[in-house]
Amino acid sequence: METLAKWKIRIKDLLDSTEYDIPVILRGWVKTRRGSKKFSFVEVNDGSTLHNIQVIADCNLPNYSDIEKLTAGCSIRVEGKLVKSPAKGQNVEVQADKISVYGWADPEKYPLQKKATSREFLRQIAHLRPRTKTFGAVFRVRNILACAVHKFFQDRGFVYVHTPIITSSDCEGGAEMFQVSTLDYDNPPVKDGIVDFSQDFFGKSAKLTVSGQLEGELFATALMDIYTFGPTFRAENSQTPRHLAEFWMVEPEMAFCDFEENIILAEDFLKYILNYVLENCEEDLLFLGKRNEVDVLKQLKKVVDSQFNKITYTEAVELLKNSGKSFEYPADWGKDLQTEHEKYLAEEKFHGPVVVTDFPKEIKAFYMRLNDDEKTMRAMDILLPGIGEIIGGSQREERLDFLQDRIKEMGFNEDDYWWYLDIRRFGTVPHAGFGVGFERVLQFVTGMSNIRDVIPFPRVPNNAEF
């Protein structure tokens, strides 16, 4: 009986091996096969690495006629010996004693043949695109980046909290939300001319969350430092390469934390996860950099080694107005910064990361703490070259009366937030946090130009396949 370690051997481990003439068992998918009547050279990959391993199959194997039929996409099991390779460009190869075919792939129908394939086409076959070199590299990096997120917070004593995906409250106050309902869409119950959600599954209108922050704050006021890391949803009808309808957010919340401490943690977090990827994904990053014509290693190292510049929103607007640049959306105080503004500040003005603080209250969420001028909030955005905003955060409003006033200003129903207000009624404390779009970071890390190519199954308008 095979041991688990032997059963689960990866091609990556074989390629890194310094031992030769040892028995091995490997499993994977055929990339190519070439050969003659005496030998077949089969390139096999199992997704653990960019590189294939070459399997040498002798014509004396009992099922050699089957081996000759192997084409791209077929899955096989190989038993044999790992030997030093005499060929250039590879350290080892496997001399097969036995090859079993798990599954065939009809070459007339299998869409991943040895030819250039557009990323637009690959999105249509997202169930197969992880088998390509590019997307295998992207999703290995995604795995390491997720590991870095958890490691950063776990090493600092943060508690991982799973916040609801279904909610009855709107955190952002502006983003469209997906409705969750079991009502008959063709004949919903109606009361006073509107849909009567009291007859729905939850007894009220329910939606998919845009953020786990509000619930995260509740746990921070009990467990001190927490973070959430889960899917969020926004029903924005956008087809840009920067937007998804379903994406993952990282949202830490810290009790007894002020605005400056929040900024320090955000900077430390960003540098840590980027450095972690640099240390653990160099080969995949080099490959992706060449494919995307972006020196991602240099880009990441620059952020890791940078001192973050810090300016207020008011200063940012003045810099934009005096830049001499012709922006599509002219900068003006009271208007949100656009991507073109963010990129100018990070790329052309400061040539590195920028923290913009103290935004007008009219363009920020109700939960952010009001400054003493009563015009701006203790809010911050971190901007990076090439991508713009990467982190948004704030000190939260811990004063009950101020928070109630902001809820009214936003036109929300205070009764819907009774539980959120309670943490200001019972032992309120200064607290702060920030949010990070995981896919946005992954775009920056990999150099991929479209955000749809850094999530396994992109959800966008008119597309919810797989």
Portion of residues in helices? 25-40%
Uncertain runs: none
Q: Please, what is the CATH homologous superfamily of the largest domain?
A: Bira Bifunctional Protein, Domain 2
Give the radius of gyration: 27 Å
In total, the number of domains comes to: 2
CATH class of the largest domain: Alpha Beta
Number of helices: 14
Count of extended strands? 18
Main β sheet profile: 8 strands, mixed
In CATH, the topology of the largest domain is named BirA Bifunctional Protein, domain 2
- The second-level CATH architecture of the largest domain is 2-Layer Sandwich
Structural class: alpha+beta
Q: What order do the strands of the largest sheet run in, or round the barrel if closed?
A: 6-12-13-18-17-16-15-14
Strand fraction equals: 15-25%
Oligomer: single chain
Taken from the alpha-carbon principal axes, the silhouette is: elongated
Structure, explained:
With 466 residues, the protein is α+β, with helices and mostly antiparallel strands. It folds into 2 domains: 4-103, Nucleic acid-binding proteins (OB fold (Dihydrolipoamide Acetyltransferase, E2P), Beta Barrel); 129-175 and 210-453, Bira Bifunctional Protein, Domain 2 (BirA Bifunctional Protein, domain 2). Helices cover 30% and strands 24% of the residues. The chain has 14 helices and 18 strands. The protein has helices at 4-7, 11-15, 64-67, 119-124, 133-155, 213-223, 259-280, 282-292, 296-304, 313-321, 339-349, 400-409, 418-425, 438-446, and strands at 22-35, 39-45, 53-58, 75-84, 92-103, 159-160, 166-167, 179-180, 190-191, 194-195, 206-208, 225-233, 246-255, 309-312, 354-357, 379-384, 388-395, 431-437. The strands form 4 sheets. Strands 6-12-13-18-17-16-15-14 form an 8-stranded mixed β-sheet, with helices on both faces. A 5-stranded mixed barrel has the order 1-2-3-5-4. Strand 2 (39-45) and strand 3 (53-58) form a beta hairpin. Helix 5 packs across helix 8 (282-292) and helix 5 crosses helix 14. The chain is elongated.
